[in-house]
Amino acid sequence: MTITIKTPEEQQKMREAGRMAADLLDFIAPHIVPGVTTEELDKLCHDYQVNEQKTVPAPLNYRGFPKSICTSVNHVVCHGIPSDKRLKQGDIVNVDVTPIKDGWHGDSSRTFAVGKVAPPIERLIDVTYEAMWIGIKQVRAGARLGDIGAAIQQFVEAQHYSVVREYCGHGIGRIFHEDPQVLHYGEPGTGIELAPGMTITIEPMVNIGKRHVRLLPDGWTVITKDHSLSAQFEHTVLVTEHGYEVLTLGAREREGS
Question: What is the C-alpha separation between 69 and 23, in angstroms, rounded?
Answer without folding.
Answer: 14
